[in-house]
Design a protein that fits this description.
Helix content is 33%, strand content 30%. It has 283 residues and is α/β, with parallel strands linked by helices. It has 2 domains: 4-83, 2-Layer Sandwich (Alpha-Beta Plaits), CATH 3.30.70.260; 88-282, Formyl transferase, N-terminal domain (Rossmann fold).
Length: 283
């Protein structure tokens, strides 16, 4: 993987914007290896992601950010500079189902997901052995159905102590409280086992079976206080027919779920997602 710096920004769309940004990079002999942009016509807003070869610049990412600051202020940007060699620290929340976790661990060990999985938190002990075989701490935090607040407070403390950047709900099957979602806004990814906005909530495969659907799907999205209604990151589908029972839908759906979650997480780790209200732009 080439060492690059990522410049990500959004701001009001206006004449001369791209020329000034690329001119700034060129003035320091910066070599752009990847560039993407999108102009949202509805609100006249501009989004861009630029990767710059690190060794083409005479300074590091912090100095790049310092020198870019005047341009960011001039165009009223929301922006960031990141180093693609710095791994994000990830926590995975799980329950009983193992398929999404297994897939993430396999991709992580093979280097397909460039991150550090700092810990896995489970509300059951079911997956402890699977996690600890990878030399990753497994932390059991049971959730009392009558009073969930203490468990979520403990989980929030754990992720803060581990300095977690990103949380992945790998079929965790619990609704995070609003303050948790706000604290990690656009940093908590969930996999929902349906093609949202269809079949929100519990047992979507059962809902799909009752409707006699011909397609089932999965959706990776950011978690918000509204159940299964956060900005959608990635989706996919698989065709089924009248001969498939509920168990078939679940089996087929599991393959879709893990692929969609892995792609969504990779986009997030590579800083390819920009949120526009309740929509996303994926570069």
């Amino acid at each position: 993987m080439k060492h690059t710096y990522r410049l990500i920004f959004n701001c009001p769309d206006q004449s001369g914007l791209v020329a000034e940004v690329t001119g700034f990079i060129a003035s320091h002999a910066g070599w752009i290896t990847e560039a993407a942009q999108h102009s949202e016509q509805g609100n006249n807003w501009f989004y861009s992601r630029i990767e710059i070869l690190a060794n083409s610049l005479p300074f590091d990412a912090d100095e790049l950010a310092r020198r870019f600051e005047p341009i960011a202020q001039k165009f009223d940007m929301q922006w960031s500079v990141s180093d693609n060699q710095v791994r994000k620290k990830v926590a995975v929340f799980v329950s009983h189902a193992s398929h999404c976790l297994s897939d993430l661990l396999d991709r992580w060990r093979s280097g397909d997901l460039f991150c550090d999985i700092a810990c896995v938190i489970g509300n059951h002990e079911t997956l402890r052995r699977q996690v600890e075989c990878c030399d990753i701490p497994f932390i059991h935090v049971p959730v009392d159905k009558q009073d969930k607040a203490p468990a979520f407070a403990q989980m929030l403390q754990i992720v803060q102590e581990h300095q977690i950047d990103t949380i992945v709900l790998a079929r965790y099957m619990q609704i995070l409280p609003e303050d948790f979602c706000q604290h990690y806004r656009n940093q908590v990814l969930n996999i929902h086992h349906s093609f949202l906005p269809s079949f929100i909530g519990a047992k979507p495969y059962h809902q799909a079976f009752e409707r006699g659907v011909k397609l089932i799907g999965a959706t990776c999205h950011y978690v918000t206080r509204d159940l299964d209604e956060g900005p959608i990151i990635e989706q996919d589908i698989q065709r089924v027919d009248h001969s498939d029972n509920i168990e078939d839908l679940v089996r087929i759906g599991k393959d879709v779920e893990k692929q969609v979650l892995a792609r969504g997480l990779r986009y997030h780790l590579e800083d390819r997602i920009m949120v526009d209200g309740n929509k996303t732009i994926i570069f």
